[in-house]
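Exercise 7.
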Amino acid sequence: MTLGHFIKQIRTQKGLSQPQLAEQMCVEQSYLSKLENDKSVPSNEVFRKLLTALNLSLDECMQTLSTQGKREELSQIPDIEYWYKQHQQSKQKQYTHLAILAIVLVSLGVGLFWSGYKQLFFSEKRFEYESQGVLQAGEPVELYHKWHAYLIPYSKSGDREFFAQVEVAMAKRLDKKTVFFSDYRGSAYTESVTDGRRHYRFQGPKFVERAENAWLQFVGLLCFSAGVMLTLVGKRLVKP
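Solution. The predicted structure, written as tokens, is:
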């Protein structure tokens, strides 16, 4: 769309004749006719009179002309050339902000994914400790593992019945309990309980998957993907 076509279109929409619009602009009708037929380019002063007569702001005018008009022709008018420069600067700022956001999203995405993958915040390594049962006061901590050795001084050689009775008694007392910790507490440790104490022995490290790490990786991928998409389509989104 040329500037002349635009003037004629808006004039018609507002129900103005050429003489009426020319009068409001304080120009000759013949000059307005030349403008509408693209045989002349208005001066900046005449262009401002045109906008005033049509009751249009520069932005309202450029909403149509910037997408359908020819910039080379329109830029001959200083106000329009200035509008294009301001508009371009505004779009450039938008793109800069978008680019910064994309960089932040990509960086955040990589950081979150790596944190989840390497378990930096939520370790999946657990240290397993096991107790065989409750120990009474004075009983050795290794009672459940070495009770045979502790009974030798008190038993007669070959007294199978005595050993069988003790074995049954120990089996009844057996009450295994397993606990896991995120930190290593040594090869063994003892803690007090209501009816005595428990001796825990280190069984080895275990690895237990944690949903937190999976979520960190998932959110990281989303942020990374969003950042990449903004980078790829950013210029199109803010295209002048």
